[in-house]
Automatic annotation (TrEMBL):
This is lipoyl(octanoyl) transferase. Its EC number is 2.3.1.181. Belongs to the LipB family. It comes from the Eukaryota. GO terms for biological process: protein lipoylation. Residues 57-224 form the BPL/LPL catalytic domain. InterPro entries: aa-tRNA-synth_II/BPL/LPL (IPR045864), BPL_LPL_catalytic (IPR004143), Octanoyltransferase (IPR000544).
Amino acid sequence: MFPRIFFNPLQKAKSTFPVILSNSNSLVLPYIYLNQVTYIKALTLQEFLVKSRIENKLEDDLLLLVQHPPTYTTGRRDKGRGEFERLRLQEFGAEYHETLRGGQITFHGPGQLLSVRCYVAAIERMIIDTCIKYGIKAKNTKNTGVWVNDQEKICAIGIQVQRYITSHGFALNCNTDLNWFSHIIPCGLENKQMTSISKELSKLRGEEEQIGVEEVLPNLCNSF
């Protein structure tokens, strides 16, 4: 894992990033949390940040955290779905976008926390540690992502790397409407289901629980 990281939110009104101070024992990593924003707007910002980082116009690493309105995205391994699939999924009221990230089709929506910077193994460990804080026993399996058992996935992961700069990232279901996943085969895995922190907590406590993104965010940052 990484050294302990302290997350500093960036003020949206500022056009420049603050100076990042670090020492041998700790790092300070700025993050932007945009709440709910369309996939295209988040992608545009992400591409701008990646380009700025590659060109050394952005000196420090940055974590971008967002939620999306109902959106389906495909990855590089998910080719050939075509116009019919796009129209079919849009009929449910969701956006549909083809992307350059790894992996296959998945769903993004309200109640789901998405990151666009990190490495797969470290991401998985971070999500597992976050789930542990809620008493949820999450784990790795032979399939990418984080699972609560061999059949139910709580977090999908897909990244793109350009000149050692990573983008896209993870999608952790907090209180996501899981019904959206019923219209697709998430990540191309047959006979698997998606779950969320809220669903797993409800099962553990025997009563309805709703754990939103804003509540999960501090725990996730502390686990990074």
